[in-house]
Amino acid sequence: MDCHCEHCHNVNGSCALYSTQCRGGFRLEGEFCKPENSKPTSVGAIGGGVGAAIAAIIGISVGLWFFRRRINSKNTNRSSDSTELTDISKVQRQVNAHENAVYKDTKANAKIYANTDSDYYSYNEVVPGIKIHLLWDYIREKTKPGSSFFEDEFAKLPAGLIHKHDLAAAVENRGKTRYREMFAYDHSRVPLEKEKPSDSEYINASFIHGFGKVTKFIASQGPTEKMIDDFWRMIWQQRVNKIAMLTNVFEMGTLKCLQYWPEEINGVCTYSGVEIKYTAIEETFDYNIRSFDIRRGKESRRVKQFHFKTWPDKDVPETTWSLVDFWRVVDTTDAANISPIVVHCSAGVGRTGTFIALDVLITQARMEGSIRPLQIVEALRQQRVNMVQTKEQYKYLHEAVAEALLIGTHPVLTRQFASVVDYMMGKERESMTTRLEEQFNLIVKCIQEVPESAEEQSSGPTYGNMETVMSEIHAYRPQLQKRGSKIIQRLGAIFLPTVGNTNALLVCMSPTDQHMEEFWSLVDEHHVTTVISLASPGSATYETCQHLGARGSGRVGQFSVNYLHEKKNKGSVERTFSFRDENHEDEDYLTTIKQFQLTSWLEGHDTPSDMQSFLDLLEEVLKWQPHLSDKRPILIHCQTGFMRCGLTALVLNEIQRIRKENGQINIVVSFKTMKTRCRDLVHNKTQYRFCYEVILAYITNSGTYQNL
């Protein structure tokens, strides 16, 4: 199609990214300029889903406008401004982004519209959006074997420096850029106020707009020796209270970012007259949250740093939900604050661009009911060089947005959970399945690369040495290092994560007499003191699991196992054992083990027959071992190693989450995280539904957290 726009889009041939102007004799219809005498075509309504009401209003407009707050600085070289009158009933300022002569061949000439009286900002609607409910199917279609769709689309994006960057390239600013040609553009850079003659007004950081919010972010290079003072001067001058750090200080032995905060809690350091006191840290597996009190003169402020630890440079995180959860924490913490959020990695373009693009696309989806990743990434690249740096990051961005919009990683509070369950049990109009069933199907569908199941692993070969075993079994499988050449992985054991821990649960098949020594090796080497037995009455291993080798001599290989006593409850039995490794000469090497055996889960049933006795058993477990820990995992076993173990592990983790995280519930995250390690856990919709129902029963019966 011939382009009759004032500026043509280099990616799809339509009007350029922010252009809504047509040449004489043509009018704008949708994303293209058409002859004024042609018959208009109808414009379809933006689909429902997230933000349908807002989307309907947006659809009435000719297009969304790209606003930019004017950045005033007495000592800043700025591009010339021109004023343009539009049909939006407001005079808006158009900042033309001029290019260096060497970049004149760049086709995409961005128009940036700013209203000096408004903080509103949006991206002009140019390309057709991907409807939210079709997003996962879209991704699967574009990633079929042999498809290069995302690679080809990524290649269409403008690369390298496409706008003026005179100040960044000036002689006095040499050495302030960590990587070659990763400069901040003149039109979008963050200008620093000079506080003394020796101060520089340049820092390698750029204002980046959010969807619907002007200068929501500052994308920054990670501090270096030459910019660390400027970094904290920027934090102070821009009144920043949130920093998202997406790199580690060292990665693969290379310094990626100077540590710009004190080493120890209560430590103090000072940069550019800003005193930084490190006051607290909250640690999770994927990220840490640090609190700083910063002071200059008599004024003090609080800054939170959100440090994502598991994102390799120029690559993507291992999972999508880890980043989505991190984004959610950054987004919801002090959400009312209007100061820019500083986002940095090492260069401030790849990981930084992906994180910011995730935020922009989620907001776009909420407002429009669809997303336009290609346009959004191009818009970001107009503001800072090479944002979203690799094709892998571009593809991952789609998956992370789908994770945020469709999987539902947002936790809910106990007081909200009854209404959530009621909603999930309902159906959409003309649908034959409940929303909960749709959610189950979607999660199962989106897990594509997972470890082998316990059933497949359990049929593996017997190995003769430790090196061979460790090269074959999965990283999440426990190591039995003391057994030497006798090691056999017949119980299909696998670690599962919990809130704040990576390996706090250990699930395996119920042991037979032949595998009892391996069972006690798991207990011994991983310091287990709590065993949950889910073997049903009448099953092949039920009797064996009652005594766990303590009959007769009580010898199980090198272990001595002694049955002490038991307590019968409704639907369960609590037994106490002591055991020791006879190879230890120390008489004090005697461990007490509690076994909690559920007797109310009948053979052939997907879920426990008595929900309350199941909850009572878990309550007793947590009385005996209140804290889940990698150093002392709870061992759960059943006939297959997954059919019953997964359900129990998920519910146990959610009860722990409620207690540990002030009444938060996130069944989806527990389900996805565990199922990624073993795809057979919580293997059908009946079990998945039971997880919702039993957590609701726990909240209702306990009453402890209903006000949270």
UniProtKB/TrEMBL annotation:
Domain Tyrosine specific protein phosphatases span(s) in chain numbering: 324-395, 612-689
Family matches, as Pfam families: Y_phosphatase
Transmembrane intervals: 45-67
CDD domains xrefs: PTPc
Ranges where the Tyrosine-protein phosphatase domain occurs: 150-404, 436-698
Stored PROSITE patterns: TYR_PHOSPHATASE_1, TYR_PHOSPHATASE_2, TYR_PHOSPHATASE_PTP
Keywords of the record: Hydrolase, Membrane, Protein phosphatase, Transmembrane, Transmembrane helix
GO molecular function annotation: protein tyrosine phosphatase activity
EC number(s) per entry: 3.1.3.48
Top EC class of this enzyme: hydrolase
Keyword Kinase attached: no
Family: Belongs to the protein-tyrosine phosphatase family.
Family annotation (PANTHER family): PROTEIN-TYROSINE-PHOSPHATASE (PTHR19134:SF562), RECEPTOR-TYPE TYROSINE-PROTEIN PHOSPHATASE (PTHR19134)
Protein name: protein-tyrosine-phosphatase
